[in-house]
Structure formats: C-alpha cells, structure tokens
Amino acid sequence: MAIGSRKIRGRAPSTDYWPGFVDAMSSLLLVLIFLLTIFMITQFFLTQIVSNKDSALDYLKSQIAELTSQLAVSKREKADLQSTIASLQASLSAANDEKNRLSGMLSDAKGSGDKVSALQDRLDKQKKISDDALQQVALLNEQIAAMRHQLAQLQASLDAAEKKDEESQAQIANLGKRLNAALAQKVQELARYRSDFFGRLRKILGDRKDIEVVGDRFVMQSEIFFDSGSADLSPEGNRELTQIADAVKQIAKDIPADIPWVLRVDGHTDANPINTPEFPSNWELSTARALKVVHLLENEGVPPKRLVAAGFGEYQPLVKGTSPEANRRNRRIEFKLTER
Fold first, then answer.
1. Residue 266's beta-bridge partner residues?
2. Which residue(s) pair with 218 in the sheet?
3. How far is CA 87 from each of CA 73, 142, 246, rounded to the nearest angstrom?
4. How far is CA 114 from CA 110, 118, 121, 138, 340, in A?
5. Strand 307-311 to strand 261-268: parallel, antiparallel, or no bridges (unpaired)?
6. Where are the beta strands (DSSP E) in the chain?
7. Any residues with CB less than 8 A from the CB of 143 and at least 6 apart, and which?
8. What percent of the chain has pLDDT over 70?
9. Is the pLDDT of residue 340 over 90?
C-alpha cells in the first residue's frame, strides 16, 4: 500500500530533500552500470567483427609469407646461377689459355706433320669447348634476366598485399568507431526511458520501505506478491502488478521502435532450502515466481516479446548473511528495463 506524506497538527510542514537526492544518485549509478554493461556487450560483438577481419588479415599475411619465401628461393637460384657463370667463365679462361699454349706448340712443330695434325685436333676440340661454354653463358644470362623479371613481379605483389593490409586495418578502426558511437546513442536513449519508467513506478507505488531502486533494477520484496514458499500471487500482488503493467504500457508507447528493449523480471530467494514436491530447490521457486509475474503482465496487455523471466535462486543475494532482515531483503522480485 502506498504511504503518502501526512501533515501533523501543530507542526509546520518540512521539506525532506533526502529521497530526491537518493533518487538522483541511484539514477546516476544506474546509468553508469548500464553503460558498463552495454560497453561489455559492444566489446563482445566488436571482438567477433575484429575476429572475422583478423582471419582475412591472417590469410593476407600467409600470402605475404609465401611470396617472401618464393623471393628467397629466387635469390638463392640467382646466386647459384651466378656461381655457375663464374665457373664457366673460369673454364673459358682456362680453355683460352690452353688454346694459346697449343697455338704456340703448333708454331714450334711446323716441321712435324703428325704432331701438327694432333695439335690441330686438340685445338679444334678446345674451340668447340669454348663455343659450348659461350652458349651456356648466354643461356644463363637469359635465365638471370627472366629471374629478375620474376623477382620484380613478386616485389610488386608483396607491396600490393601490404597496402591491402593497411586498408583493412583502417576499415576495422573506422567500423569500431561507428559501432561505439551508435551503441552509445542507444544506451543514452534507453537510460532516459528507464529513468522515466522508474519515476512512474515510484509515483504509482508510493514511497514504501519494501520497494527500492538498486543500480538499474527496481526491487520489490517477495512478500508483496507471494506467501512464504508459494508461487501463487496474492490479491495485493495482483493489484501492484496491474499498476506496474500500466506503467510498462505507458512507457512502451514512448520508446522508439528501433530500440530492442525488454523488461526482465528476476526472481530471488533467501538461502533457506525449500525442498518440497512442487519446488525441489530455490531455483524452481524463484523461476516459478518470475514466470508468474511475467504471465500476469502479459495478461494485462504488455507485449510478450518485451518480457523476460529469470530465476536466480539464493545465489545472487542483495545483502550477505542469514539474519531475518537479510533474508527478507534477499527474497525479492526485480524489474530491469534493458536491451534484448
């Protein structure tokens, strides 16, 4: 039941600014926590996008590594060809020396026909060897020219791959900035509507001690809706939820259609075990209570696609301890206006 302010006879009315200050601080804390939540979600999706880009970058890097390997192999082949050319040039020099020596011997042996003929044969053979060596040198020069052309093509491919990699990095950075800006705008819009929603609930339900705002959640004690160990709504709980449904329907008209919002209903219990045939554990009890609230809101006209039910059992206590006061605060139903 809502408790309104009362005037006491004989006393002047006083203004209590403390609830307004607490509401303001709670709203600020709500916005900060919600921003952190959205930031984590943003980072999750951004990580998936960057992971896809990283796969493309890894493929480009593997191509660069392959081109670099081919370039190294080409350089080694070039070195081998140059070594072969040097060897052939040495052989050619030796053949020329032998040719000169044989020519000298031929001049000295003009008087001996057989010797001259033998020397001439040897000279012809050396000439043939020299001609073959020259042909090999020419062929090797052609191969070196072709190898240089291939190296130039490989270098051009490597430069193009590096440029493409830089462009991909720039696109990823730009995409991240645009995504962060869009998400920040949606967060600000939803935070404004959440504050408006909490304000309407406060106005409807009044300033009750068993209702409080914790961060970005509107917390109501379970005793408002359910008897101990039960998931059946009490008459008072039906009345309160009907008012909450009216507030949800009013705020739903104001929220733009492109904001994917939902009202999450969380059921919580204290740490005392239940273990009944209907509810083997507090998991079942908290979930059944959350579902019961969601079904009533749906019956009151709240769109089902805007509702989410979750049961947390005793594993998310609002306060630590097992004192009667701690158990009372931990037995609760929470309403959270958040993104889907």
1. 310, 334
2. 213, 335
3. 21, 17, 97
4. 10, 6, 11, 36, 108
5. parallel
6. 211-214, 217-221, 261-268, 307-311, 332-339
7. 81
8. 84
9. no
* CA-wise closest residue to 209 among 201, 194, 218, 220: 220
Q: What angle do CA 300, 246, 223 make, to 5 degrees?
A: 80
What is the Cα–Cα distance from 32 to 19, expressed in whole angstroms?
20
Highest mean pLDDT: which range of 102-116, 122-136, 167-181, 309-323:
309-323
Burial level of 292, CB count in 10 A (0-12/13-18/19+)? buried
* Residue partners of 27: CB distance under 8 A and separation at least 6: 195, 198, 213
Task: Look up tokens 């008897």; give the residue.
Answer: 227
Sheet arrangement for strand 261-268: 211-214, 217-221, 332-339, 261-268, 307-311
Q: Which two tokens stand for residue 110?
A: 């003009």
Which run of H or of E encompasses 155?
A: helix 113-205
Listed in sequence order, the residues at least 6 apart from 249 whose beta carbon sits closer than 8 Å to its beta carbon are 300, 301, 302
pTM, two decimal places: 0.47
Q: Which two structure tokens, joined as six digits, stand for 285?
A: 């009890």
Answer for the pair 325, 293: CB distance below 8 angstroms, yes or no: no
Report yes or no: 65 and 165 within 8 Å, Cβ to Cβ.
no
Residue with the bigger pLDDT between 312 and 127: it is: 312
> How far apart are the C-alpha atoms of 171 and 287, rounded to whole Å?
45
Q: State mean pLDDT over 217-239.
A: 92
Taking alpha carbons only, the member of 234, 322, 219, 310 closest to residue 273 is 322
Which pLDDT tens digit goes with each residue over 125-177? 877 787 777 888 788 788 888 888 888 888 888 888 878 877 777 777 666 66
Dihedral class, residue 131 (left if φ above 0, else alpha if ψ from -120 to 50, else beta): alpha
Q: Which residues does residue 332 pair with via DSSP β-bridges, in sequence order?
A: 221, 268
For residue 227, name the pLDDT band (cuts at 50, 70, 90).
very high
Q: How many residues does the chain have?
A: 340
| Residue whose entry in the numeric block shows the structure tokens 């190294």 | 72
Average per-residue pLDDT in the chain?
Answer: 81
User: What are the structure tokens assigned to 251, written together?
Assistant: 């705020």
